[in-house]
non-specific serine/threonine protein kinase (Cannabis sativa), 425 residues
Amino acid sequence: MKCFPFSVGEKKEDPKSTKSISGQSYNSTFTDGEMKRSGSEFNSQNASDGSSESSRRQSFPSFSQRPSNLRVFTVPELKSATKNFSRSVMVGEGGFGCVYKGLIKSTDDSSTKLEVAVKQLSKRGLQGHKEWVTEVNVLGVVEHPNLVKLVGYCAEDDERGIQRLLIYEFMPNGSVEGHLSARSETPLPWAMRLKIAQDAARGLAHLHEEMDFQIIFRDFKSSNILLDEQWNAKLSDFGMARLGPTEGLTHVSTAVVGTMGYAAPEYIQTGRLTYKSDVWSYGVFLYELITGRRPIDRNRPKGEQKLLEWVKPHLSDIKKFQLIIDPRLQKKCSLKSVQKLALIANRCLVRLPKNRPKMSEVLEMVNKIAETPSRPGSPPLQLKMASMESVRDEETKNKRTISDAKGGENGWFSRMWTPKLLRTC
């Protein structure tokens, strides 16, 4: 999936593009002095004025001001763990470096070996270092069952140059993107897709609502959702994460960066970042789970390359709707269950950010689908659902619109998302 930089007005940060790590998407790492500087940089993000929807959060604590359980590794230790960074143990490669599978000694029992993923930062300058530090600052203090655990880091300077590495728990079942790919030999069953939707929503809800500070993920996508040995889904790659707005402010102003097909239209147009941008990305992801298609796929026929545009005309008719369901599910799923998840996706894709639900609300809705026993072949839902009428009425009262972006292949992001009959977003 292609990532992109956008320039919206004055740039607030280096807008160099990023690339996904294929397979495992572990990303981004400094000396102690550099980490201290990074902590202050992370805390002093530029936020624009505003009063409504203020998050009332405390400042993000800098790395140097909090206790940390992160282990500090040396380069020789990591060479030993990865067979001298051998390509035979490489599990991913991307714009910010390579990821290797490794074995390290457990701190609890030196005779026990732990599998880890070692991300080695390539020497490409400040932007990569900024993401390295952001990753340490976020995962050094934030722990949750649905976030990939950061085990430790390495920051050394020697005659070979700057060495910056991150060490994560190993996720043996790879990324959700990999399993949704047509090349995957193990297509995900519907029950597993619902569980992944739950896990991902739970991870985002924790970042947005369950801490003294708010973290906006900013690069939520299927390649950044990894699966552990028990197929639990965990969010990874926090190099693009940002602290949410402080008390009295409605948003954070940043250079617009992210991944094509996932970024919210208002963020692309204005550079104003809120947690509702993550909610939009989650909505796109739900349609990935439903269709098995990527948000943008240039290998498909012209009318099917952009996922949201392709599914839109299929939402107003039950027969058409069935055509967007991933054929690899082979009708081994309840149509009613799929329709309910699509309705949640539409709620997340409402064009006005304030009308999108919080991730805790999204999680509650997804939980209800997963907990409701439904069999393949159960009667479909009525297209005009009462639960969606309030969304339509609310949007009718709001006459504000966002003008279409001009030119370039990214203009489609800013078009209104309005399915003909459902009019849910």
The CA atoms of residues 337 and 369 lie 6 Å apart. The chain has twelve helices and 15 strands. The longest strand covers residues 97-105.
